[in-house]
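Aim 2 progress update. The chain analyzed this quarter is reproduced below.
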Amino acid sequence: LGLDGTGVVVANMDTGVDWRHPALVTKYRGYSGHAPAVHYGNWHVSTGEPYLYPGDGDGHGTHTMGTMVGDDGAGGRVGVAPGAQWIAVKLFANDGYTYESWIHDAFQWVMAPEGDPALAPDVVNNSWGNDAGSDTRFRNDVKALRAAGILPVFSAGNRGPGQGTIGSPGSYTEVLAVGALDQEGAVASFS
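Predicted structure tokens:
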């Protein structure tokens, strides 16, 4: 595996991803460049919305995917792992809400896209959670990801800074929690 993420597949469980975004399209695992894209095993909608291919009615998931793998091939490298490929689950409806059943469905799909564990990603990013660090509703899902060899990454939350401000699932010992820094490299006022 390369330092730039080459050979790694990342997923996000978010609002979806605009797969045709210029900084993301060639990084999509379903992109072939010549033939039609293959969305089967690379894209899943837990919300029931009629997305046949990766789309994002909110923009948040596209933003977070750009942070992970964004690279337009013309010097517009913004992602931390521009050599990685991506897949995605639309877990939040365009109106910004989700249900526990959709979240559980998304976890299940990520572990075995279309029922095939060989299609599972190496890492799954989740830029969502709640302020209650003690909430364990998704702990078994996270443990299942770890047992499947998938690293779950979660937002630390936006309630900080300070001790005891990490929300769940970012608070689980099984995840890598990520916060934010400001321009000076200090913990951001909200992180």
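The chain has a mean pLDDT of 90. The longest strand covers residues 9-14. These observations will guide the mutagenesis experiments scheduled for the next reporting period.
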